[in-house]
Design a protein that fits this description.
The complex is a heterodimer of chains A (147) and B (186).
Chain A (H helix, E strand, L loop, with lengths): L2 H4 L9 H15 L8 H29 L15 H10 L4 H7 L2 H9 L12 H20 L1
Helix pairs in contact in A: 3-4
Chain B lengths: L8 H10 L4 H23 L2 H17 L10 H22 L2 H9 L1 H7 L8 H11 L3 H12 L4 H8 L3 H19 L3
Helix pairs in contact in B: 1-2, 2-3, 2-4, 3-4, 4-9, 5-6, 6-7, 7-10, 8-10
Classes of the chains: A mainly alpha (147), B mainly alpha (186).
Chain lengths: 147, 186
């Protein structure tokens, strides 16, 4: 079998391995040895989740508001809130991972999914694929605890 | 430094620890393992930027935990185990808050990246195999990579992943069956 196939069809930038040792040693010398923080991915999905949960809360509030008796004293207008305010709020709130998981439990995401608040593109997976993926993730969890 | 070339991996690593971790000996250890580590990690994480970061972390961890190596097993197993653990924790962390995004990535973004010239080499068969691999459950993909690309024994894979050999064989069997279907091979 071709050596290239053994690499799985991937390619690396030219000269990558030549510079590798020095990068590692430099990090050891300077003490920059922590793994990276997933700022971009975390940030992106957190923004999305906060926005989605806000939408859910606002929707529930809106339905409650619409079905409430007409003489409700506090009239809340949704025009008072806009997305930039929500995003600004999200910027201000610094939550730990645990706090975030507490605030947004899994069923919230499920209900958002069912209510089609999550965009349709997320629903392209067929049930079998979803089940596979669930298994995959739970298997991954088991692996972690085993080690 | 010439004299170390005939040393076994374990002898070289012992010299490294005994001499209070000189950089030049660590370079020789990296020289022996960096490509194997990188490719193992790359096949798990797919993207070069992720594999680069995690490979560096693997050798940093090796440096930091050098004293904990017991010399009663192969150095390669010790290093591959670090590589496996770091790759899995990277994946887990990356997927933690973006499971839906992450799933899309596996099929959309990741497999798209296989088509782009700058990432994999565009070889048709290798790219098709890699795409098929991305459709496998994580565990089956890992076992397949270790067996097929790294040609490790089930015993070695069991040491690295902490999974029983029987379970690994079952996973490998499922993986090969599914890949045949994906690739349209009878």
């Amino acid at each position: 079998m071709d050596k290239r196939y053994r690499k799985g069809g991937f390619r690396v930038p030219e000269g990558y391995f030549e510079g590798f040792d020095e990068k590692v040693l430099e990090r050891i010398r300077s003490g920059q040895t922590s793994p990276p923080v997933f700022v971009s991915v975390w940030r992106k999905s957190r923004t999305w989740m906060v926005a989605a949960s806000m939408a859910a809360i606002l929707s529930i509030g809106y339905i409650a508001f619409r079905t409430a008796p007409v003489d409700t004293p506090d009239k809340i207008s949704f025009d008072d809130l806009d997305s930039s305010e929500l995003l600004a709020f999200e910027e201000e709130v610094e939550l730990s991972e645990e706090e975030f998981e507490e605030i947004i439990p899994a069923y919230t995401i499920d209900s958002l999914y069912q209510a089609e608040i999550i965009p349709a593109s997320y629903q392209d997976l067929n049930p079998e694929e979803l089940r596979d993926l669930e298994e995959e993730f739970s298997a991954l969890d088991e692996d972690i605890t085993e080690i | 430094m010439q004299k170390y070339q005939s040393f076994s991996n374990e002898e070289l690593f012992k010299a490294f620890v005994d001499q209070n971790k000189p950089e030049d000996l660590f370079r020789q250890i990296m020289e022996r393992f960096k490509q194997k580590v990188y490719w193992q990690v790359r096949r798990i994480l797919v993207l070069h930027s992720d594999a680069d970061e995690v490979s560096q972390i693997v050798f940093i961890k090796l440096w930091q935990n050098a004293e904990s190596f017991k010399f009663n097993s192969a150095l390669s197993s010790f290093i591959y185990r670090i590589a496996y653990n770091e790759s899995i924790s990277f994946l887990k962390q990356k997927n933690r808050f973006s499971s839906l995004d992450g799933l899309l990535d596996v099929d959309g973004h990741y497999s798209n990246s296989i088509d782009h010239g700058h990432e994999p080499d565009g070889d048709e068969i290798a790219a098709r195999l890699q795409k098929a691999l991305l459709k496998l459950p994580e565990k089956q993909r890992l076992v397949f990579n270790y067996r097929y690309f790294d040609e490790l024994s089930y015993k070695d894979i069991s040491d690295i992943t902490g999974t029983s050999e029987g379970a690994l064989k079952a996973s490998y069997h499922h993986a090969t069956e599914k890949i045949k279907i994906f690739l349209g091979i009878d």
